[in-house]
Amino acid sequence: MSQITPEVLWAQRSSSTDAEKNHVFLTISVPDVPAKSMKLDIQPTKLTFTGHSDTKKADYHVELEFYAEIDPKESKVHHTARDLELVLRKKELKEEYWPRLLKNSQKMHFLKTDFDKWVDEDEQDAAPEDDDYMSKMGGMGGMGGMGGDGGFGGIDFSKLGAGAGGAGGMPDLGDMSAMGGLGGDEDDDDEDEDMPELEGEFNSVPKTETGGDAAQTEGSSGDTGASATKTAKIQEVE
Prior knowledge:
This protein has helices at residues 131-135, 185-194, 199-237; strands at 3-4, 8-12, 23-29, 38-42, 46-53, 58-65, 70-79, 83-90, 111-113, 138-139. By secondary structure, it is an alpha+beta fold. A hairpin with a 4-residue loop joins strand 5 (46-53) and strand 6 (58-65). The chain starts with a strand and ends with a helix. The relative contact order is 0.14.
C-alpha cells in the first residue's frame, strides 16, 4: 500500500513579549485515523507524522522541517475524527512573522494557508483572541512517547482534549444554574410580575367604539324620524 502525503494547513501568530501569542497553527488532514494507528514525533526543528486508516485503506506520512525552532514541551495537540490539530510554540520571541513554515523555500503541493486562522502581521492586535480554540488543545509536556522514540501510540487522546472532558474551561452543562443567564426561570417570573395589567387598556377601547356606535344609532334614529315626517305630510296633501 502506497503512502499518501496528507494536506497540511498552517497559520501563525507572533509576539516579542508574550510567548503564548507566539506560535504556529497546524492542521494535518488525516480522516478516520485512530490514535492507536498514528505516530507523531515533534522535535525542535521538525515534525514527523505517520498514520493508517482502515476505512480509507490509506497510509499517511508527512515530514516537516521548520523554518525556525519550536518548543515541543509548550506545544499542544487535539485529535479529531477528521484531522490532527497542533499549536506549536515558537522558541524565539519575535514580532515579525516567519516568512514561511518550512526551511526549504520550495513550494509544496500539500501545504496550504489556513485562511480561517490566518491574520496579517499588522492586524494581530485587532484580531479576536484564540482562547476558545486553545481551550480544547492538550499539552505535550511530560507525555510518554514524545521525543526521539516518537509517536502518540498508546496515549489516551481524551486526556489531550480530544474528548468532551478535555475541553478546558467549559462549565458542566448538567448544572445550568452555574451559567449566568441560563438558569433564570425565576427572573422570567419576576419580569412577568412587573408587566402592567392590560385589562384597563382593553376596556378603554370598547368605550370609544361604543360611543361611536351610539352616535351612529342616534343618526339612524334621526333619519327614521325625518322619513316619518315626510310620510305624514304626503298623507295630508292627499
